[in-house]
Design brief:
This protein is α/β, with parallel strands linked by helices and about 325 residues long. It has 13 helices and 12 strands. The longest helix has 20 residues. Bound molecules: (2R)-2,3-dihydroxypropanoic acid.
């Protein structure tokens, strides 16, 4: 029996490519750069190969036009990400194509990067690193690059899902007080003493550091705008490891310039890899290149989860465990 054809849009870790090639007629991508310029090319290759599955990744253009152009052979699109904002789920549904994602396995790694950014912002680590590399460090000085400690600060987690809750667990070890804002209050065993704010205003006014963990998409577009920034205490720190579109970049740049926001840390950007040019000239912001899930362990786990989803449908004719549409 011929193995199902699986089209991989991106290069994946060696163990994941090996598993793909073992179990599928896998069309691998030999380089980390995407081979497609647009979704039409993904659809064209899927058509040429008569792919039954597509293993895509965050940022791939799986929009309505791509789904409309996919060949009838495609039964499932498995994304190598928890986020699905790059996928038009409605268009997938309309074509009868299942969509799956990779929840849970990247929560700890992404929380680690959020915590790294919190520390970089609070302790001015980016500025210090740039100073040392530039050769402008003249030696230890009592008032040099003084930041603020996280100990005892109120951490506000916007979006208290799996990643937000992992961050809360890490922050407890730093003796931070945890507050959260979420569509719904979570169960006490998940809350672990975190303080729920149903209203945005009380949340924003209560906290010293805000970490954003919101899904992308229209509902959260430019959520952190000038109004909400103004409601944060003067001297607050802002971190975003969710999706770049949730931040109004011009408003954040202005708040960082004025000092109303002491410092920020970003791992995601609206329209990445481009980013608002205003960020580049600011010292009080730490900028990372979407590293949230970028550990060897996590990327293997994401790939295995994506393949578990594909295997369920394409190899065993069962419902994939992590179906989102
Ligand atoms: C995701 O999974 O959605 C991340 O942004 C990519 O790791």
């Amino acid at each position: 029996m011929p193995r199902p054809v699986l089209l991989l849009t991106r290069q994946l870790p060696p163990a994941i490519e090996a598993r793909s090639a073992r179990d599928y007629d896998a069309r691998l991508n030999g380089s980390d750069a995407p081979w497609f310029k647009d979704g039409a090319e993904i659809a064209r290759r899927a058509g040429e190969a008569q792919a039954e599955g597509i293993l895509c990744a965050a940022g791939d253009p799986m929009n309505a036009a791509t789904f409309a152009a996919l060949p009838a052979s495609v039964k499932v699109v498995a994304t190598f990400s928890v986020g699905t904002d790059h996928i038009d789920l409605g268009a997938a549904k309309a074509r009868g194509i299942l969509v799956t994602n990779t929840p849970d396995v990247l929560s700890f790694a992404t929380a680690e990067i959020a915590f790294a950014l919190m520390l970089m912002a609070a302790r001015r680590a980016g500025e210090g690193e740039r100073m040392v590399r530039a050769g402008t460090w003249t030696g230890w000085a009592p008032t040099q690059l003084m930041g603020v400690t996280l100990e005892g600060k109120k951490l506000g987690i916007a979006g208290f899902g799996r990643i937000g809750r992992e961050l809360a667990a890490m922050a407890r070890a730093f003796r931070m007080e945890i507050h959260y804002h979420n569509r719904n209050r979570v169960a006490p065993e998940l809350e672990q003493g975190a303080i729920f704010h149903a209203g945005e205003d009380s949340f924003l006014a209560a906290i010293d550091v805000m970490s954003m963990h919101m899904p992308g998409g229209e509902a959260t577009r430019k959520w952190l705008n000038a109004d909400r920034l103004a409601k944060l205490k003067s001297g607050s720190i802002v971190v975003n490891t969710g999706r770049g579109g949730s931040v109004d970049d011009a408003a954040l740049v202005e708040a960082l310039r004025s000092g109303h926001i002491r410092a920020a840390g970003l791992d995601v950007y609206d329209g990445e890899p481009k980013l608002h040019p205003g960020y580049l000239g600011l010292e009080n912001i730490a900028l990372l290149p979407h590293l949230g899930s970028a550990t060897e362990e996590t990327r293997d786990a994401m790939g295995n989860r994506a393949l578990d989803n594909l295997d369920a449908l394409l190899l065993r004719g069962e419902a994939p465990p992590h179906r989102v549409a």
